[in-house]
Design a protein that fits this description.
372 residues, alpha/beta, Aspartate Aminotransferase, domain 2, Aspartate Aminotransferase, domain 1, 2 domains, 7-stranded mixed β-sheet, 13 strands
Amino acid sequence: MRTGIPLVDLRAQYETIRGEIGEVLGEVLDAADFIMGERVAELESVFAAFCSARYGIGVSSATCGLHLVLHALGIGLDDEVIVPSHTFIATAESVCHCGAKPVFVDVCRDTMTIDPEAVRRAVTPRTRAIIPVHLYGRCADVAGIRPIAEEFGLDIVEDAAQAHGAFCDAGRAGTMGTAAVFSFYPGKNLGAFGDAGMITVNDPSLYQRMHMLGNHGRTSKYSHEQIGFNYRIDALQAAVVSVKLRHLNDWNEQRLERARRYNTAFSTAGCVTPTAMPGHVFHLYVLRVSERDKLLRTLRANDIGAGIHYPIPCHRQPCFSDRPMPGLPVTEALVSEIISLPLYPEMTDEQQDRVIECTLHHCASHDPLPVQ
């Protein structure tokens, strides 16, 4: 009897590292050292080195990490931060938590990441920073954004939540801006067993400020220089991520192999496939098709997990309904075309063939996506 195919199979991944995970969690429990400590410091150091960054700061989630970076940069009331609308809400949410205004801009049609020309048009005297999102495991065009940031004196804060190990001509994810934030949400390429994340940064003074603010603004156990936050990663999550980090390069390569297999299968199907470019770590495999909702229903009817990342762009979220509606034609078009197909390192050829078969049948039954 055939079983369902999930969008991502966390259980299958766990089975490959069960022994390593059990050992490291046992060590943390035996030491009873759960907050800060050696496990956290080790992960911060090793992950920073993995990204070719100078410092790492473990945080309780990527959302908290983005807020911490922006707060440490002094971004606040009446400031503006440019963000793509085609992203998860946390990117914009972190700006709002600082009292600042997220300014939504469009993305490039081919990469679905922030459009540098749209960024330039959005700069005002109140702009303080730009948050390029490395979406689906593909680096945003930071090389195109950097001259704009330098011209107007703006910080670049990388939202690298989906880009562990990704790189491009501008550098490695985590090293291309003032600071970067990664997510260790369980479904990510590098996931914890709950919420967790990491900031990477090269500037020592900014590192010290964020490290202090993220731990209640303290300079010693009971001395607090500033009002801070409890944004610390805990030792159990740090231990889990440390184990998984040893396997990340292999897992990313397996994701790339699966993505190439999809691309070959869909090359003449009348849909738009993501380019398997160097440095793309394929957190998600996002296909663009006509009659997307019909395909989604077909896949789910065949017990195949699929998703939409993201069905409602940020500028159309109810929480931003009191703001003027920007004209973002590429984003508006994409949200009706994109579908995320199952992709994970442990996926078998048989599982992938089932996904391909259903998708090709849909594409053959509908008009091809118009070339734009």
